[in-house]
Amino acid sequence: MAIVFKEVNYSYxxxxxxxxxxxxxxxxxxxxxSFTALIGQTGSGKTTLLKHINGLLKPSSGQVLVGDQAINxxxxxKDLADLRKRVGFLFQFPETQLFAPTVLEDVAFGxxxxxxxxxxxxxxxxxxxxxxxxxxxxxxxxxxxxxxxQQRLAALAGVLATEPQILLxxxxxxxxxxxxxxxxxxxxxxxxxDEHLTILMATHDMDAAAEFADQILLxxxxxxxxxxxxxxxxxxxxxVFQKILALPKVTAFASRFTAKTGYKNQKLPISEKExxxxxxxxxSEEPLGKETMPNx
Length: 296
Hints:
Helix content is 40%, strand content 21%. By secondary structure, it is α/β, with parallel strands linked by helices. The longest helix is centred in the middle third of the chain and has 18 residues, at 178-195. The chain is globular, with a radius of gyration of 21 Å. The protein starts with a strand and ends in an 11-residue tail after the last helix. One of its GO terms (molecular function) is ATP hydrolysis activity. It is a peripheral membrane protein.
């Protein structure tokens, strides 16, 4: 399902003296089956933007199109019921969406609510938890007994078990160790490619954004600053200098390398593979003296 924002504005408590504008004239289009990273500093409007896609929030003005469903200030809750079955949302704080007595019951709730039998929903829940590498010895434990990382996996399983067409992810790797982060991000990419899932991920993890996203949206103070591919986004030295944009680790290293050695390359690398090629080329073209290599 495609996602289109058309001049979307959103103000909190819009008709009160405390009104505060959180989204400012935001317009973009995400194609069906795309993987997009939504980045920006804390408070830039990322979560607010995500909540417009399944109608948890509605624009003060402008319009959001999700597939053929329009969302504007006048859209009713009844009109959004079918859309919400097709849009999965993993919230930033997973404990807010874990409510059943056990993990297994929580994950099975969505499939059963969408029409599966109790036994079928439980099987779907087990398969989804296994797919995420969840420790199944904890499946019959209350969610409150889990660690933060385990809660995040359980909440994610509950979202994926409903087989959404759009997946909204708010800081999905927060609290996960590096190996679990890699496994979960690889799974998201596989779902995008195999199931033609449209994914929009709000994240502070620039390494994940660079490696897995097809395109990136950069937000600042409620405005969309730039929409670009990861390769093009992370060449924006002006945005980095203004501290609007952070860099992936390999790109930051390459940037320090060029600053210290004077080596000039058309584009900085955004992956480890590109970094190896970048350094090989630099070492073959520019003999480096002692003390010129930057610290990792």
